[in-house]
């Protein structure tokens, strides 16, 4: 028999997540409070014996002028993706969401497909024949991800096109950079930093850079640096209330769910970053810095402090989040890839996000809307 999918309480949802080694920060109940322009609902998968075997945070957003919804489960749901009866786990979810008025379902299975070691990425960047990570043989390869993709296609799902997270373009990065911590001492992690990273951390320490933890009242300081970063790196910044809402919602659920770090030098904050924690998975979430006094290396000092704190928390991975899969020198994001890999990070490819159109006409209208906006 297939599991039954139905709404559950926030307490049930959180208890299930906390009993696992980890889950995405986008699959905890409080994330629904962060995404205030979506309607959030916690779903539970119940086996015939009544046991809760999976949960999911679904975000619902109506198509303009039509009370039909895009249903989105970012980096979820939290189910056994290797289960031989996966079809019987997804079908009741789709049926429930269709009954809720969903015209399309988007989800992001948290399943790794390929990994590239820091050495492999460094060699690929130096190889003129390598234009994308996909051109480079991976250090490790997960057959289960290939099998999962094939099963999803047979069920009618299709891989999403890459997109941003604003509005309906609810896309999460397919390629990320992660520093593995499991089974490694902090000395091991430090030895994984490349020579430039170690030099910069020492330089920051010698220059007197101090990294401290901040709180809600320090978010405006972070935000000033963040808007400067947005202008410099050519992206549209989120508004300050978004970060204030994030802090309030996440820390209410768990005091360490979100942290803020500030790098000070001679009375001025030169860099700031947010960190998210769910179980053994720690994410570097948002970063910001000024162009002033970059020679004292505040970003290296701040990231190393965050990595040390993550290790102290018992993290099994420190996640730098999204990276470009383009290896071209002309890509302005290549420097960020070098920075993250220099910290000992592996390049990691997930199986990606997948769409299931339930009403093809409305799903097509969504595509047209996104193309024009």
UniProtKB/TrEMBL annotation:
Pfam families cross-referenced by the UniProt entry? FemAB (PF02388)
**Where on the tree of life does the source sit, at the highest rank?**
Bacteria
SUPFAM superfamilies to which the protein is assigned, alphabetical? Acyl-CoA N-acyltransferases (Nat)
Q: Does the keyword Glycoprotein apply?
A: no
Does the keyword Lyase feature in the UniProt annotation?
Answer: no
Entry's family note: Belongs to the FemABX family.
**The protein, known as:** Peptidoglycan bridge formation glycyltransferase FemA/FemB family protein
Q: Which organism is it from?
A: Streptomyces albidocamelliae
For this protein's source organism, the top of the classification is: Bacteria, Bacillati, Actinomycetota, Actinomycetes, Kitasatosporales
